[in-house]
Design goal:
The chain is of the alpha/beta class and about 325 residues long. Helix content is about 50%, strand content about 15%. The chain contains twelve helices and ten strands. Helix 5 crosses helix 11.
Length: about 325
């Protein structure tokens, strides 16, 4: 069946970012797609922004009480008229051949779900570019997000994710998880025998967080979610998921070694790691300021994610708390 596409955008506030995303969609070389906006109880009026694109896009707007991104995407999927659901976050920009390439890729490499890379736009500020580097670097846990070579079995993420509508409906869509709902869906699809693919020509420009404080809180929540996902999908647990926690513990042990045993071997290893991150970021971005900020972003990512993972693992496996009891804000209850 020829792929037909419904682009679904779940959004909470973010009016300016919505404008940039819709503008990029309006420039598509392939105009044959629909856009579904699901306003997840925003406190600002998004109608004027949506109305600006009524002539250039086949667009529909729905407003509902706040429920979190996953269930809002499910709401949008219920109203989709096409056979492929493409989910993008409201803080991304797509290239003009995004829809065209998706259709070409689906015909060339049939699958049930797909995803693509995220990258930094040349117009992003230095901090956004540094955070983007950290989240896609081979020296962090983000390497699989930006390179097809790093992918074994790809887990599409909701910032840039397509799912066949029949498969989406069969597995029940996104779960009640507020954080980690996209890898949860990917693994649920696998468990039902569906296939996923990585398309390397449909990358999106992902703004992410605009300051280190917000970035730290975000990746901490990601870290908390991973042991919950491990519990829900034990077949797909990997030892690499614990790497940021081991990185954090090793850093602490390095100071213990230095101050109590007068040996700086462990800290020297972290120094080498820091140099590798700097020169790799310098090579990738060609900017010394971004490379310096990338070191900060990388350590924030590793420490915050590692702490969240460690806290969650202890609560679930040592204290024997249920995920809903340990992290009630990670779940939406109807």
């Amino acid at each position: 069946m020829k792929p037909s596409i419904s682009v679904i955008i779940a959004i909470f506030n973010r009016k300016d970012e919505l404008f940039e995303l819709l503008q990029s969609l309006s420039f598509q070389t392939d105009k044959d797609f629909e856009v579904i906006i699901v306003d997840d109880g925003s406190s600002v009026n998004l109608h004027p922004t949506v109305d600006l694109f009524k002539e250039s896009l086949h667009i529909r707007y729905f407003r509902k009480p706040n429920s979190g991104p996953g269930l809002s995407r499910n709401y949008g999927a219920q109203h989709a008229q096409n056979n492929w659901l493409v989910f993008v976050d409201s803080d991304v920009i797509v290239e003009k051949d995004y829809i065209e390439n998706i259709k070409k890729d689906l015909l060339a490499a049939p699958c049930d779900a797909f995803g693509g890379a995220d990258k930094a736009h040349r117009g992003f500020n230095l901090m956004q570019k540094a955070i983007s580097y950290s989240m896609t670097s081979v020296f962090t846990t983000g390497g699989v997000r930006g390179s097809k070579k790093a992918v074994t079995r790809f887990q599409p993420r909701s910032f840039n994710m397509g799912v066949r509508k029949t498969a989406f409906e069969q597995v029940g869509g996104f779960s009640e998880m507020r954080i980690g709902e996209d890898p949860d869906l990917s693994m649920t699809l696998w468990e039902h025998g569906f296939t996923t693919a990585f398309f390397d020509n449909i990358g999106v420009y992902h703004k992410r967080r605009t300051d280190f404080g917000k970035f730290s809180k975000q990746v901490y929540q990601f870290g908390c979610a991973r042991p919950i996902l491990n519990q829900r999908h034990p077949k797909y647990v990997k030892i690499s998921f614990a790497f940021p926690s081991l990185f954090l513990i090793g850093y602490i042990l390095g100071f213990v070694e230095y101050y109590f045993f007068y040996n700086g071997l462990i800290l020297m290893m972290y120094g080498l790691y820091t140099m590798l991150v700097f020169f790799h970021a310098m090579y990738k971005t060609r900017n010394i300021s971004i490379a310096a900020m990338a070191i900060i972003a990388t350590y924030i990512q590793m420490f915050s994610y590692g702490w969240g993972f460690l806290e969650s693992w202890i609560k679930l496996n040592i204290l024997r708390m249920s995920p809903e009891e340990a992290f009630p804000k990670h779940f939406y209850r109807t």
